[in-house]
Design brief:
The complex is a heterodimer of chains A (about 270) and B (about 240). By secondary structure, chain A is an alpha+beta fold. Chain A has a single domain, classed as 2-Layer Sandwich (Ribosomal Protein S5, domain 2). In chain A, strands 1, 2, 3, 4, 5 and 6 form a 6-stranded mixed β-sheet that branches. In chain A, strand 2 and strand 3 form a beta hairpin. In chain A, helix 3 crosses helix 4. The longest helix of chain A has 25 residues. The radius of gyration of chain A is 20 Å and the shape is elongated. Chain B is α+β, with helices and mostly antiparallel strands and about 240 residues long. Chain B folds into 3 domains: about 45 residues, RNA polymerase II/Efflux pump adaptor protein, barrel-sandwich hybrid domain (OB fold (Dihydrolipoamide Acetyltransferase, E2P), Beta Barrel); about 80 residues, OB fold (Dihydrolipoamide Acetyltransferase, E2P); about 90 residues, 2-Layer Sandwich (Ribosomal Protein S8, Chain: A, domain 1). Chain B contains 4 helices and 18 strands. In chain B, a hairpin with a 5-residue loop joins strand 11 and strand 12. In chain B, helix 3 packs antiparallel against helix 4. Chain B starts with 8 loop residues before the first strand and ends with a helix. Classes of the chains: A alpha+beta (about 270), B alpha+beta (about 240). Chains A and B meet through helix 2 of A and strand 8 of B.
């Protein structure tokens, strides 16, 4: 059945392109308009931190689980953050069960890079005994319903889940680490992060593509900003290339949309 | 006991609908001499047959239905068409003909990704639906826009004796084709009409279970037209 979704109807393609040329989109948005965002935190009671983001019809849940473990040998005094993404089969007809495919790996990598390079988490604070014991954060992204732009939704959800994360205090005696019960504290986050995806359709750039636009787009570029508007990460995908001016234009567009994400995020952070 | 419901009452699965000399139709089943609903929907009594019209559900192909589909695969031996159903349809060269002038038949090959409007000529559980385009008004769809609604809502878009579709054609555009599988193709002369039509179709889909819909849609069209005209007028002045 998945071939049904891989083949795009000619009428649909022409319609989307014709609308974009007029500065409008099929769902009535303008080219630089973001879909409505809804963020909820703490929705999974057994996870150490969790959040759900709805971006139009796209729904993503992120859960964070923490564990005590050994750090990497090259960064003995830093905690570990591991990101994983799963495209659940129920989310879209072309998503199959099984090990993560290319798209899922890319999704996790893009979100990971945003969080890592924006330095919103001080990984040194996750260290308990240098070289021996640190906090390991497993941030897992689950896509419940896919209507395009998973990058932005997942990165919002990951950030909200990290904000929702509670870590217990620890008592260190020698090399033993004891968790102190009922002493859950949030981890300090430095600022916020917003990833904005811009799709290229013909010569036009559109913000926040939905699934029908994603199927006909030539290329996409995801730009992650921190709260000061500094670029933390860029990822380009799709077959077409971006000219230098197009990248500049995309960054300006993305920066404008990031303000909306920041204002939505500040409601829960 | 006579029937246990009023016509068009919402019933849930397992609900006792009628007892005695009644037959079970679509969406219901009979146990002993009792008829129960098997789905969530609107109960309807027609003669002695009790049936339930589903509120939601996939499209189940029926012979004689006009459907709108998308070509998935195309070869000289035949074409595979997605008809928004759990069965994908096939169209063979023998039925992909177009009877041209003087009754001469012309074979047409559709390309992958093209949309066609076709009629189901054969379907049962042993084989996939087979389509034909050899009839007036059937064939490839060019231009316009296709929107998808719930297949169960299609009868309301047509309306009683075609009242709704007549209204849409009179008020908005006469280039509109409805597939029984929930796909509606239309082509409009301008964007304003298109926006109104989409809004109206969504309204019909949303309020399909209510009565007096045609009159309300008529009012909505009038209101939307006024609004859009005011916006245009406001821009001009």
């Amino acid at each position: 059945m998945s071939e049904v979704y891989k083949i795009v109807s000619e009428i649909e393609r022409n319609q989307i392109i014709a609308k974009i040329a007029k500065g409008k989109r099929l769902d009535g948005r303008s080219l630089d308009e973001y879909r409505p965002i809804k963020i909820e935190t703490g929705i999974v009671s057994k996870a150490d931190g969790s959040a759900k983001v709805e971006l139009g019809d796209t729904k993503v849940i992120v859960g964070v689980k923490v564990e005590l473990g050994a750090p990497f040998p090259d960064t003995p005094d830093e905690g570990v953050i591991t990101l994983g993404a799963e495209l659940l089969p129920m989310a879209f007809p072309t998503f199959e069960p099984g090990p993560p495919n290319f798209d899922a790996i890319e999704l996790a990598r893009v979100v990971d890079r945003g969080i890592r390079h924006s330095d919103i988490i001080d990984r040194k604070q996750l260290c308990i005994i240098p070289g021996k014991k640190v906090w390991i954060l497993f941030v897992d992204i689950y896509v419940l319903d896919s209507d395009g732009n998973l990058f932005d939704a997942s990165s919002m959800a990951a950030l909200a889940a990290l904000k929702n994360l509670r870590l217990p205090d620890v008592k260190v005696t020698g090399e033993d680490v004891e968790l102190i019960k009922d002493s859950m504290k949030p981890i300090p986050l430095k600022g916020k992060l917003a990833a904005v995806t811009i799709a290229k359709v013909g010569d036009y750039l559109i913000v926040d593509p939905d699934s029908s636009e994603e199927r006909i787009m030539d290329g996409r570029i995801t730009v992650a900003f921190n709260e000061e508007g500094k670029i933390c990460a860029i990822q380009k995908g799709g077959e077409s290339s971006f000219r230098y001016q197009e990248i500049q234009k995309a960054i300006i567009l993305a920066n404008k949309s990031s303000e909306k994400i920041f204002s939505e995020l500040s409601k829960v952070m | 006991m006579p029937v246990n419901f009023e016509n068009n009452q919402i019933v849930s699965p397992g609900e006792l609908l009628a007892e005695g000399d009644y037959l079970s139709g679509e969406g219901s089943f009979k146990e002993g001499n009792k008829v129960y609903s098997s789905i969530l929907g609107l109960a309807v009594l027609k003669g002695k047959v009790v049936s339930v019209i589903p509120l939601q559900g996939p499209y189940y192909p029926k012979v004689g239905d006009i459907v709108i589909g998308k070509v998935l695969n195309s070869s000289p031996a035949g074409m595979r068409i997605d008809i928004n159903s759990l069965y994908s349809a096939a169209i063979f060269p023998s039925t992909a003909n177009e009877t041209g002038r003087r009754g001469r038949e012309k074979f047409i090959q559709f390309d992958v990704g093209e949309n066609i409007i076709a009629k189901i000529i054969s379907f049962d559980r042993t084989h996939d639906p087979i389509l034909t385009v050899d009839e007036e008004g059937l064939g490839k769809l060019v231009g316009g826009r296709i929107i998808k609604i719930h297949p169960t809502r299609v009868p309301r878009v047509i309306g009683k004796k075609g009242s709704m579709i007549k209204l849409l054609k009179e008020e908005l555009t006469d280039r509109i084709k409805i597939g029984q599988n929930g796909l509606i193709w239309f082509s409009t002369s301008n964007d304003v009409i298109e926006d109104i039509l989409v809004a109206v179709l969504r309204k019909i889909e949303r309020e399909a279970h209510t009565s007096g819909l045609t009159d309300r849609v008529k009012e909505t069209i009038k209101k939307l037209k006024e609004e859009k005209l005011n916006v245009i007028r406001g821009k001009n002045t």
